[in-house]
Write a structure and sequence with these properties.
17% of the residues lie in helices and 42% in strands. It is of the alpha+beta class. Among the domains are: 62 residues; 186 residues, no CATH class.
């Protein structure tokens, strides 16, 4: 005991040093152990990183080189589809049938059999031969996607109708004579439903057909169809889902053969009928209620108070003094305005634009007899223009581009024209204007010839060169239908020609052609409406060849 005390007195800090030393050793040992654990964890993390990197590289390599990427369809510049003994109908529809993001072409023809690609006949659908076939042709290469014997005789073909027959893709509706409606699946051409009516003879179906909100409450939008027979208009509603008629057939009295347009005025929808002498207005709600036999409530629908004040509810005439003075109305067309569509009324002497918001005349313009329905395009960027094609003499016509807001003539051209010549078409360009396509025969001043029949030539005009026309092609064949469209979104501008015998003529060769517009621009002939120094023909061709197109939603 004394020795221990003496030892403590001689080395007073020894005990503490020993304890400190022991604690330090334990600390170092724990740190070594912890460092060892962290080192192992770090190695695992490094290994996991490199394994993940390796797997990512393997996946990228597989998708890049081993697993082929889906090929983008390569569209041919020009393709043809021929039929030997047929008669085409004057309908062309542009829709994406096979979901490859390239537009396809649908058309109708009358024949005993389809093309050699599909071994189908009229008897396959229980139809007498010859019958009307609906065909879908690939926009990329012209191959036939499907053919369907659809009707005995086609009055009207309308495609792109959503939810028809509950199909996932839009459908086509075929109207045949005697009156029958046939819904086709756009993807396959299969018949979704058929419905028929017996209205006797001497009736006319008013087109285009109108899609309306769901009246029978089956979750699918419905269709309203109008027919005229003398001075009477009959209408009936069909379920878009099943094709069955909803309610009964209604009747409207007019003072002559009528046509119509549909106006959407914010939360109001009106059917505007016009005869040579009068205008009639019916609200969508009134027509649906009359067909069903009870008041129909349509969501977000309200009557337009101003229009209701100007409608005589006994006769449904649109009582406007400015409109009643027109007489012999030939065309009625919708023209987009700032907040709603306006109405263009055209008779044999003038065109008048009516503001639908306050029902006043915006402008009038002297025109002669129109040869085709008014068409919309863009002469100035994002500024709607109206294309009017009017007759100015035997085999002579004038094409005018009119500013929609003011009625000012922005550009005009006189052409020789033969009977049955196709109407104009427009294509939207990336500079927010339009390329204008028109048919006729331009005669340079001082070189007019009146003895020969006018040729059919296709011309291109773009507002960047107001003094130039491009002559794209000549056609000596009889053109049944013509249209222009962007076959791929914002690119691949094309036009389509359907040629063959006229309906009612003996069957003969029929051809359907798609032609890429730039192919004709590159070899076109430059026509100077007035020469401007400094412009070279090849420079103009090259610049219009490089012109870009842009889809408008």
């Amino acid at each position: 005991m004394d020795n221990k005390d003496s030892e403590a007195e001689i080395h007073p800090l020894k005990t503490e040093d020993v304890k400190a030393q022991e604690n330090h050793e334990h600390f170092v040992e724990r740190r070594i152990v912890k460092s060892s654990g962290l080192s192992r964890l770090s190695r695992w993390r490094t290994a996991a990183f490199f394994i993940s990197l390796f797997l990512c590289l393997v996946i990228v390599f597989a998708f890049s080189f081993i697993i082929p990427c889906p090929e983008r369809p390569v569209s041919e510049r020009t393709w043809f589809q021929y039929y030997n003994s047929a008669v085409p109908y004057p309908f062309l529809a542009i829709e994406d049938v096979n979901a490859d993001k390239v537009q396809d072409v649908l058309f109708a023809f009358k024949s005993s059999n389809g093309s050699s690609s599909f071994n189908v006949s009229c008897l396959d659908e229980g139809l007498p031969s010859p019958c009307a076939f609906i065909a879908a042709v690939s926009g990329t290469n012209g191959s036939v996607l499907w053919e369907s014997p659809a009707a005995q005789d086609v009055q009207w073909l309308q495609c792109g109708i959503q939810q028809l027959g509950m199909a996932a893709a839009p459908g086509c509706l075929v109207v045949e004579r005697p009156l029958s409606l046939t819904a086709l699946d756009l993807r396959t051409g299969e018949v979704l439903w058929r419905q028929s009516h017996d209205f006797g003879a001497n009736y006319t179906v008013l087109t285009p057909l109108s899609v309306i909100p769901d009246v029978d409450e089956d979750g699918v939008q419905d269709l309203i169809i109008f027919i005229t027979k003398g001075a009477q208009v009959k209408f009936f509603i069909h379920s878009g889902k099943t094709g069955q008629q909803v309610g009964s057939t209604g009747s409207l009295s007019m003072d002559g053969n009528a046509r119509y347009v549909t106006l959407h005025l914010h939360s109001s929808s009106y059917f505007l009928f016009y005869t040579e002498k009068s205008l009639y207005a019916y609200s969508l709600k009134d027509l649906c209620s009359a067909a069903v036999g009870r008041e129909v409530k349509l969501s977000d629908f309200q009557l337009d108070s101003l229009w209701e004040k100007h409608i005589d509810h006994a006769t449904h005439r649109l009582e406007l003094l400015s409109l009643l003075s027109f007489g012999d109305i030939h065309y009625l067309a919708k023209v987009p305005g700032h907040s709603r569509d306006n109405i263009l009324v055209v008779n044999s002497e003038m065109a008048t634009l009516i503001n639908t918001k306050d029902l006043h005349v915006m402008w009038t313009l002297n025109v002669s007899r129109l040869l085709s329905e008014p068409l919309l395009g863009y002469y100035k960027p994002d500024d709607h223009g109206i294309i009017l094609e009017s007759e100015i003499g035997p085999n002579r016509k004038k094409i005018m581009i009119v500013e929609s807001e003011s009625g000012a003539v922005q550009w005009e051209l006189k052409l020789n024209s033969r009977a049955g010549s196709p109407g104009p078409a427009t294509l939207p360009t990336a500079d927010h204007r339009s390329a204008f396509l028109m048919w006729g025969d331009y005669q340079e001043p001082g070189n007019e010839t009146t003895h020969r029949a006018p040729l059919q030539k296709l011309y291109l005009f773009h507002p960047s060169y107001t003094h130039v026309l491009l002559e794209l092609r000549n056609s000596t064949d009889q053109i049944i239908a013509f249209t222009a469209a962007l076959f791929e979104r914002s690119r691949h501008a094309c036009y389509v020609l359907l040629r063959g015998p006229q309906p009612g003529e003996e069957p003969g060769p029929v051809s359907l052609m798609k032609r890429k517009l730039k192919e004709d621009v590159s070899v076109s002939r430059v026509i100077w409406l007035h020469y401007m120094a400094g412009d070279e023909e090849q420079h103009i061709r090259d610049r219009l060849y490089r012109m870009r197109f842009q889809s408008r939603d």
